[in-house]
Amino acid sequence: MAGQDLYAQVPSAPPHHPGPVIYPPPPNYYGAPPAGVLGPYVPQGNPAFPNQMQVAWMQTPTPIPNCPPGLEYLTMIDQIFVHQLFEFIEALSGFETKNKYELKNIMGQRVYFAVEESECCNRLCCGANRAFTIKILDNLDHTVMHLVRPLGCQSCCCPCCHHRMEVQAPPGTTIGYVVQEWNPCIPNLSIQNEMSETILKIKGPCLQFRCFGDVSFKVLSKDESTVVGKISKKWTGLLREVFTNADNFGIQFPMDLDVKVKAVLIGACIMVDFLYFEQNSGGSRGAWQMI
To answer: Residues 229-276: pLDDT tens digits?
Structure first.
């Protein structure tokens, strides 16, 4: 009885209500470190991005037979995000500067970054129609792709001078083209292989202006009967849309799509940005230029 009284005087613990289990965040995976470096490696800032914070890079994949070097990353993903970097000088002065982009996977890890090479007078006088070469680099600063576009015209009255972008991977080896097709009502692009044979089509919406929402471009099969993927322009907010060119895009494609076609679709996303969403003083007509 004494033992029972002793236990009776011990206060019972309050009932336990299990809450949500909080797991630690996953570790950041960075690119391969230089020889002789042990432990986690954070790549140093690239001169092309002097003011950008250090970010996690997607792990460097192993080489794959018959895959252009540097494009092995694309075999592991079915979507990629393209973020144009904000340029303070451009927003303040209205003077068109060289475009820069970060390409990231769904984990927010950087897969590539891209830097435009173009002439100052070309940007000032020709605006979004200017000629350029965009270098796409991996986490080791190796140039894995070139997007080469000569000077062109996107007037609906002059279909013979529309834009054509050549996609090279590695630089100097053509793997495909992005070709603007004439259409007075909706944006049309064709994805071509290295033999200039059309393999996919891209169609956008028939709108004069689209605000307060995303804008989607369907990626279709050659006969336009099947939706293969999508390129989406993400709405970034009223102030950012009006006063800057810093656009965000998402690209979706099948996981098993040919890696070269995935690379050409990245070029198509950049082409869409220049054709329809560049706002600058060189003759562009605004953020959304459809007829």
So the answer is: 999 987 655 555 454 456 789 999 999 999 999 999 999 999 999 988
Q: Is 74 exposed, middle or buried (0-12, 13-18, 19+ CB in 10 A)?
A: buried
User: Across the strands, what pairs with 145?
Assistant: 136
Q: Which residues pair with 19 in a beta bridge?
A: none
9-67 tens-digit pLDDT: 544 544 545 444 443 443 433 344 444 433 334 444 554 444 445 667 777 788 888 89
For the chain, how big is the Rg over CA atoms in Å?
24
Q: How far is the first Cα of the chain from the last one, in angstroms, to the nearest whole number? A: 93
Q: Output the pTM of the full model.
A: 0.74
Do 74 and 263 touch, CB atoms closer than 8 A?
yes
Say how far apart CA 141 and CA 57 lie, in whole Å. Answer: 12
Q: Is the dihedral of CA 276, 281, 282, 283 positive or negative?
A: positive
Q: Residue 216 has what DSSP assignment?
A: E
Query: Counting runs of H as helices and runs of E as strands, what totals does the chain give?
Result: 5, 12
